[in-house]
Amino acid sequence: MANTFEHERIAMIKPEVVDQVLGAGHYERWQKIQDAFIEEQTRAYKNEERFSSAWAKNVRTQLQADLAFAERIHDDYLALLERISARGTATVTEGEKILDVFVLAISVLTSVNDVLDDMFALGIVSLSSGRWSPLVWRSMPEHSHHFSRSCNRSWKRRNGRPTRRTCS
């Protein structure tokens, strides 16, 4: 999420100078990319909260690394836009490279957020944290027999190995 300092940095950027140096419409393109970044950054913060349990440490660590990478590139591009606004010159290829990497970083963050949102929607967070959701449990085919009254839950031996009897 953009803080006050970041808002001040963005306010110092001169769109007309950026478009003059990097090409017409570039600042507008940047704003759209930045909007996508802020949306994914917000989703990432929400997923950090959702996956705050100890079991999700690795998931959360990877999310934080992907988010930190995208934030660093965002800062780099803001610095480039500030230099362009102040000096009126820049290396166009440098700007293009940074922006291309930024778009890829946002794409990675979007994919990670999509997976984590799906895990949350499926109840994997509650399953893994020890809070078994009956709705999710029941929807899993291998566990649906636990809710069937006609199911015989006893074990029987088949070919020398214990096997769960099938439910009728």
Task: Return the structural class.
Answer: mainly alpha
For the record, give the distance between the C-alpha atoms at the N and C termini, rounded to a whole number.
54 Å
How would you write the strand order of the largest sheet? 1-2
Which spans have pLDDT < 50 for at least 5 consecutive residues?
A: 129-140, 142-157
Portion of residues within helices: 55-70%
Characterize the biggest β-sheet: 2 strands, antiparallel
- The rough form would be described as elongated
Domain tally: 2
Rg is 25 Å
Number of helices: 7
Mean pLDDT: 80
Q: How many strand elements?
A: 2
Order of helices and strands: HHHHHHHEE
Proportion of beta-strand residues: under 5%
Indicate the topology.
Blueprint: H1 4-11, H2 15-22, H3 26-50, H4 57-87, H5 92-122, H6 124-128, H7 134-139, E1 155-158, E2 161-164
Antiparallel strand pairs: 1-2
Helix pairs in contact: 3-4, 3-5, 4-5
